[in-house]
Structures are given as C-alpha cells and as structure tokens.
Design brief:
This protein is α/β, with parallel strands linked by helices. 52% of the residues lie in helices and 6% in strands. Strands 2-1-3-4 form a four-stranded parallel beta sheet. A two-stranded antiparallel ribbon has the order 5-6. The longest helix is centred in the first third of the chain and has 41 residues, at 2-42.
Length: 388
C-alpha cells in the first residue's frame, strides 16, 4: 500500500515537473507579451484631450499647414470655431490690423462656447481671453526671419517694393526700408510682420533702439502666456511637443505642407521670381531692418529647446517615429497615383500610437484648401457661407 502511495506521489511529482518545464517558457512568453503591451501603452495619451485652442496664425510661418491640423480636428468633432464676418473678402482672415472684437467675428452659436481660434488675427491676450475658455491652450509659430522675408516677397509681391524702378528692387529697398515702407506698420507685410502679428506694442516699431526694455518686457509676457511657439525649422519636434501638450493622438498631428513656394508649379514659380534677386549681403541688410523678428525668433527657438530638454529621454524616439509615419502618409496621400492607390493605409500600433487607418477622406481633409475648409466649417456652424 505504501509502495503504491509512493508510486502515486512520484507520478504526481514527475507530472508537476514536466508541467513546470512546459509552463515556464509559456509564462515567460506571456510575461513578455504583457511587458510589450505595457510598453506600447505607456506612451499613449491617458489624459483627456485638450480641445480649447488659440493659435496665432502668423503669415508665411507654416501657419496654413498647422491650421489644417486644428481645422481637421475640430471639424470632425463638431467643435466651435471663431470665424471672421461673412463680409470679409477672405474667409480665413478675421483681421490683418487688429485683434478679435465683437464686430469682426461671428457671434457664438446658441448654447455653445468657442473652442478653437485659428484664423488670421493680431494676438492680444486680453481680447483672446474675452472670448475663449479659461483652459485654452495658447500657441503660435515662427520661422527664420530671412526665409520669412523671402517667402513674403514671393507670396505677397508687395507693390511698395516691386514697383521700385531699379534693376534690383529688393536691394534698393534694403538700402533704406523706411523710405518705401507704408507709413502704418499694420499695412506692411515686410516690417517685422511676425512680431506685429504676435502683438508687439506699436511703440517698439517706431524707435527700436530706445525701446529695448519694452521689447524684453513683452517677450517676458509672451513667455508667461504662450504654451508653445512652434518653430518651422524644427516643425516635427514642435508637433510632437504639441501632441504631448494637447494629449492628442499621433494621427491628429499629421500634416501635408500647404501654401509653400517649393510646391508651386514651375511656371508659377518662374513668374513670381521675376525681379527678385538675392545677393550675398541681402540677408545681413535684412537682419539690420528686422531686429524685432530676429529677437522674437531667437526667443522662440531657445524656449522650444528648453521645453524639449524638459521632456523624457524618449522624446527624439517619438520624433523619429513621427517622421517615419508622416512620410508614409505623405506618399500615400500625395505621391501615389489615385488609380493605383489602395483604399486604405494601415499604420500599425507602436509605442507612440494605436493602430489607425488613413483613407481618402483623411487625405482630402489634409489637402483641403484653407479658405474652402473655413467656408465648410462656417456652413456646418451657422448654416450659411459667404456665397449665400
């Protein structure tokens, strides 16, 4: 009897040993799966997305590209936008010379509050705060000032420069910009326009040498008021930081470049380049004229770098992944022939995103021209468009 019990005991022990040998790798595999899943989920947004946004849309600073992100996000979620009056010639502009007022924006729809402000208008914190919720995230963008100047020349073709009777009107202009600039700085697109649209006090445009203290004071004010100033030369890093600040998903910050000179057709570029010469000393001359824009740009780039340094060490891993995904989406939406393009592009799950699908609708929204996008939003929001 005891022998039988020992034999039964030994059988159970052998069975347990055999089972453990099989279970150990299975447990290890299961543990790895859970650990991998935890790593994947650890970087995904866990807080509620922030949906109240005020974006200072600075001309020729990738602002249409960035604006499309906010238009797309708000449109697909039926959020409420601050829009200029229907009497405006350009539906994507609230004002080029002042901040938001009761008379230059559409009223808030009944039983709504404004969620997103991203049309062209001069920044003024008090004016913005008067119409936006208390938890609004304040954003803007800047660009290398000389590249901003060149882009403005191509895009706006300002008559006060191109009507100069000289072989090289830009060089003639830069010898003495004040001679040719409009008397009212608000009517200029080349007199430190980025600083103007960020709301710098008008007094610093008139006598910059004597207003150093006022400039420093205003930059300190911007530092306290702005959650993020995106820098065009570091746009992908800026976007990843934006995603983290807003608790958005990776697909929410995807973009396709808009209104870029490089993207124009060759014949259009040739026409715009007429009478536009850039010499070796052009940038240095412009630097002396655009001191406010250079000061703003230097402030914004250093501020962005500090914000990035305060991120976790994995920040640049996310930036690399974002670049990789953005190229795939760009190729799918822009470069692949529609006749041969598959119906969808599947972006697999990663540490930085859940699996998501890019389809023709998403491509269309990313490529939608801003004025038509704003008109569509106006119709969704108020039931009418400027043509009505």
């Amino acid at each position: 009897m005891s022998c039988i019990r020992r034999r039964g005991f030994r059988s159970r022990v052998l069975w347990l040993l055999a089972t453990s040998v099989l279970l150990v790798p299975l447990i290890h595999l299961f543990h790895n799966i859970l650990s991998h899943r935890a790593r994947l989920d650890s970087h995904l947004p866990t807080l509620a997305p922030r949906q109240h946004i005020a974006f200072v849309k600075v001309h020729k600073a990738a602002s249409s590209t960035i604006q499309n992100i906010f238009l797309r996000y708000g449109y697909t979620r039926n959020l409420t936008f601050v829009l200029g009056r229907t009497t405006n010639i350009y539906p994507n502009i609230i004002s080029l010379t002042e901040s938001v007022t009761d008379y230059n924006i559409e009223p808030i729809p009944p039983n709504k509050t404004f969620d997103i402000l991203c049309s062209h208008v001069i920044y003024n914190r008090d004016a913005f705060r008067a119409i936006m919720p208390d938890d609004t995230v304040y954003l803007g963008s800047v660009r290398d000032p000389f590249q901003h100047f060149i882009s403005s020349l191509h895009y706006f073709r300002p008559s006060y420069i191109f009507n100069i009777t000289a072989t090289d009107p830009v060089a003639a202009y830069l010898k003495n910009p004040s001679k040719y600039e409009p008397k009212n700085v608000k009517h200029s697109m080349t007199n430190n326009r980025m600083a103007l649209e960020f709301g710098f006090p008008l007094e610093v445009f008139r006598s910059r040498k004597k207003k150093t203290a006022a400039i420093t004071e205003y930059l300190d004010q911007l530092d306290s008021e702005m959650d993020l100033i995106l820098v065009v030369e570091k746009l992908e890093e800026s976007m990843v930081l934006l995603r983290r600040i807003l608790n958005w998903k990776l697909q929410d910050i995807l973009y396709i470049h808009k209104n870029s000179f490089a993207g124009m057709r060759n014949e259009t570029r040739s026409k715009l380049s007429k009478k536009l010469y850039i010499n070796e000393d052009t940038e240095e001359k412009y630097r002396k004229w655009a001191k406010l824009d250079y000061t703003l740009y230097d402030f914004a780039t250093k501020r962005l770098e500090r914000q990035i340094q305060n991120q976790n060490p994995d920040f640049y891993d996310e930036v690399r992944h974002f670049k990789f995904v953005r190229v795939k989406v760009d190729n799918f939406c822009v470069y692949e022939s529609r006749a041969y393009r598959p119906n969808i592009l599947v972006i697999p799950q990663s540490e930085w995103n859940e699996q998501f699908i890019v389809n023709s609708l998403m491509c269309s929204l990313m490529q939608f021209k801003e004025r038509y996008f704003v008109e569509e939003i106006r119709f969704q929001q108020y039931g009418h468009s400027p043509e009505d």
